[in-house]
Specification:
The chain has five helices and no strands. By secondary structure, the chain is mainly alpha-helical. The longest helix has 20 residues.
């Protein structure tokens, strides 16, 4: 997990390590949930995390940034989101 945090910080240039760590934990939890519930039509990995962090850097709101990046990438099924 720490390696992923460091990679994302380096790639995005984000300086808010605490938020990136939280976001990394959320991405891992979502990925595990999708695996456990056989939600396979989307993806939730490092690329999506990077997009989320970049969006967060622009808008300043983790939840709003998640809506347009992570949550829309997880599945095309609106009921599963």
């Amino acid at each position: 997990e720490e390696t992923m945090v460091e990679r994302v910080l380096a790639i995005t240039g984000c300086s808010d390590k605490k938020s990136v760590r939280t976001m990394t934990q959320i991405v891992r939890s979502i990925a595990q949930y999708c695996q456990d519930n056989l939600i396979t039509d989307g993806c939730c990995g490092v690329r999506e995390l990077i997009a989320w962090v970049q969006s967060f850097m622009v808008c300043g709101d983790i939840q709003e940034a998640a809506h347009y990046t992570i949550l829309s990438s997880v599945t095309a099924d609106s009921e599963s989101r």
